Amino acid sequence: MRIPAAPGRGECRVRGSRFLALAAPVSSLEQALDVRDGERRTYHDATHHVFAARLASGESRSDDDGEPAGTAGRPILSLLEAAELVNAVLVVTRYFGGTKLGPGGLARAYGDAGRAALAAVTARSVAVARILHILYSHPDTGFVTRALAAANGRVESTRYGDRVHIEVAVAETMCEDLCASLVNVTAGRIEVSDSGKTGLVTVNP
User: Fold this and answer.
1) From residue 168, how far is each of 148, 156, 171, 178 by CA, in Å?
2) Residue 205 pLDDT more than 60?
3) Is 0.90 topped by the overall pTM?
4) pLDDT (tens digit, 9 = 90+) per residue, 93-146?
5) What CA–CA distance (Å, rounded) separates 187 from 197?
6) In three state form, how does the secondary structure of the chain look?
């Protein structure tokens, strides 16, 4: 999976119609709709504001905004799927040029505009992570830090007391190896438990 690092824009013109596309990172479908509504306000005189959004949770949504069913929202959602982009929204605004493009022409035009916006986006690769609770003694800090770095773990929070308590996000595929490594380097002095929560972590491409 990949997540957009920043917004990107693209444009294409087909037989008089102008298609303006925006690809942007989002964290929820509500935020995706806010991005779409922002484009509506910016281009308030445009004919259509088609959008598609896809989240890491598996949720997705698309809307043809008055274009013939299946000719606009679905094609740009397919672009997000093909690019393996999640937590992303793609909005394509159309200014009608006076010539009907037909279902196939519409799908191609929306797709071309969407691809132009995605081409301008820098994305980072991510993986589903589990959130682990880790409890260890202060002298073991160096061992724990090196083990987390080797597993690309990300510390979410830290609490200090008689012992150190951290919450760490670790890619699901690395959890078993990390737990084994932590037990090994601390000679069993560490406590690791699964919080039951999930998140996302950046992984090497």
Assistant:
1) 8, 5, 10, 11
2) no
3) no
4) 999 998 899 999 999 999 999 999 999 999 999 999 999 999 999 999 999 999
5) 27
6) CEEECCCEEEEEEECCEEEEEEEEECCCHHHHHHHHHHHHHHCCCCCEEEEEEECCCCCEEEECCCCCCCCCHHHHHHHHHHCCECCEEEEEEEECCCCCCHHHHHHHHHHHHHHHHHHCCCEEEEEEEEEEEEEECHHHHHHHHHHHHHCCCEEEEEEECCCEEEEEEEEHHHHHHHHHHHHHHCCCCCEEEEEEEEEEEECCC
User: In terms of Cα–Cα distance, which of 101, 44, 99, 40 is closest to 72?
Assistant: 101
